[in-house]
Amino acid sequence: MPLYVHRGYRIQTQVTSQWQAIIWAPSSSHASTQLSKATIAEGEIVSLQRAKALIDYWESQTDLQRRGMASKRAASTPAS
Question: Which of 27, 37, 55, 70 is surrounded by the most beta carbons within 10 Å?
Fold first, then answer.
């Protein structure tokens, strides 16, 4: 099956009794334990779209955490 890349994450689809998209984080050889799935009738594209949405969600949470840590650091820095 083809290998797709979204935001640095690698996605590979496979079909068994349903479509599954396996996701690898950037610079990792370990696949995520979370798979995006779609029924045979929904097809490979739906599984891939769900994987991309999951990656976008992970990235948005990471961005929020980074912003939160940055604002805490700024708040703890004494004013000149």
Answer: 55
Give me the long-range contacts of 37-42 (CB less than 8 A, separation at least 24): 40/15
Q: How many CB atoms lie within 10 A of CB 48?
A: 20
Both structure tokens of 50:
């769900």
d(CA 11, CA 13): 7
Q: Reduced to 3 states, what is the DSSP secondary structure of residue 1?
A: coil
* Kind of pairing between the strands at 9-15 and 36-38: unpaired
Q: pTM of the entire structure?
A: 0.74
pLDDT of 3-20, one tens digit each? 999 999 999 999 999 999
Taking residue 45's Cβ as centre, other Cβ atoms within 10 Å add up to 11
- What number of H helices and E strands is found in the chain? 1, 4
Q: Kindly report the CA angle at 42 between 37 and 52, in degrees rounded to 5?
A: 50
